Amino acid sequence: MNRNKSFNAIKLAETVMPGGVNSPVRAFKSVGLSPIVIKRAEGSKIFDIDGNEYIDYVMSYGPMILGHSDKRVIKSITDASANGFCFGATTEAEVELAGLVTTHFPSIEMIRLVNSGTEAVMSAIRLTRGFTKRDKIIKFEGCYHGHSDSMLVKAGSGALTTSVPSSSGVTECLSKDTLVANYNDIESVKNLFLKNKGKVAAVIIEPVAANMGIVLPEKGFLKDLIDLTHENGGLIIFDEVITGFRLSLGGAQGLFNLKPDITCLGKIIGGGLPIGAFGGRKDIMEYLSPLGPVYQAGTLSGNPICVAAGIATIKAIEKDNAIDKANKNAEYLVTSLKEELKYYSDELTINHISSLLTIFFKKSPVNNFNDVMQSDTAKFKNFFGELIKEGIFTAPSQYEALFLSSVHTKEDINKTVEIIKKAIKKI
Ligand SMILES: *Cc1c(COP(=O)(O)O)cnc(C)c1O
Questions:
Q1: Is 144 among the catalytic positions?
Q2: Which cofactor does it need (predicted)?
Q3: Which of 106, 195, 353, 374 lies 20 to 30 angstroms, CA to CA, from 40?
């Protein structure tokens, strides 16, 4: 497979953009390869500027559950843009999108639209601090909540009480208010509450962790977490930026029948255009400006073109039963892989839920960040190299998911299984 044009384009990109990219994982650093540069995408396929075709399992890290370039979404975006790009005033479409989300998420009584998942989480955190008049936030090691300062913190080697910024540039003053617990370990949360009595504003969690690879919540963990948080006077935030409109129309909370105080959304609700949202209990949401004392604003918030893409995407998901289709595709992929790779069951773990999965190069179980860290990343690196060479595009990191869409075909999946099998044998 010739990738000369991509190689040269990245060389040029590196002269004007740090690392040649606008988001770090795109630089393929952890797999030591030169990245592909994309020309276009359609359905389950993505094409680079050298004309190579790949079956896509990145799916823009989540938004493209309908596959790329869905005709209905294109029409909706085109129609909206013909009416102007943004106005600095409210449109009816924003209210329609808010209605669609609140219908599917009973816990979201009121919602505010923003421009990214990062912004949704950042604003939700501020809101919970304002509402509770407390400063501290509990997050879980290995969970990603965007790149706002308070969220770029994870504990150093299991030391739960001493928070260490994991990004340079995050002040100590901020990171000391972010406490880090272990996923699937309710005792670690109890300890943090004990040591910080009356100080914790909120606990934020990915109800299914999808940013350290897929890690599922153990039975009862999320319910216990909600109860524990409420007993301690805190609020619970579900970060459903990936899981919203993917695990079910009502996200992970719909699938597990749980009710967080605040929910953060992004990715699918913009259908591939920049959007984010946070919402929840009315009494909390009314703490936001202009009604309440917590300030939050945005020139491009509720942008009509992004909103149009979101509405068209959600309606198409409903109409197509896209979630069921994507789930069936993932189920077929996982079942086939488990069958074909059974000789390697001592070296591999496939974590899977709905249309998300991760192949870890580690013996089962993978239930928390510590387990994830034991995965053999050298093997992953070789694995990724074999896949991309054969026309399979997955995230260039062990710590991401494979995303299935409703339009991946049996043919795509059969081909993928063959290539994965060959790759595993080879490495
Ligand atoms: C992607 C993601 C974010 C950040 O969203 P951006 O749109 O990239 O800012 C936040 N939380 C989770 C769970 C995510 O997967």
A1: yes
A2: pyridoxal 5'-phosphate
A3: 353
Residue type at position 27: A
Q: For residues 281 and 260, what is the distance between their CA atoms, to the nearest angstrom?
A: 9
Output the CATH code of domain 4-69+321-426. Answer: 3.90.1150.10
117 CA distance to ligand 1 middle (Å): 4
Confidence (pLDDT) at 395: 95
Question: Tokens 């080697």 identify what position?
Answer: 157
- Give pLDDT tens digits for 219-265: 999 999 999 999 999 999 999 999 999 999 999 999 999 999 999 99
The active-site residue out of 177, 239, 261, 371 is 239
Query: Residue 161: its pLDDT value, please?
Result: 39
Note the pLDDT tens digit of each residue in 307-357: 999 999 999 999 999 999 999 999 999 999 999 999 999 999 999 999 999
295 is catalytic: no
The secondary element (H helix, E strand) that includes residue 5 is: helix 4-16
CATH number for 71-319: choose from 3.40.640.10, 2.130.10.10, 3.30.160.390, 2.60.40.10. 3.40.640.10
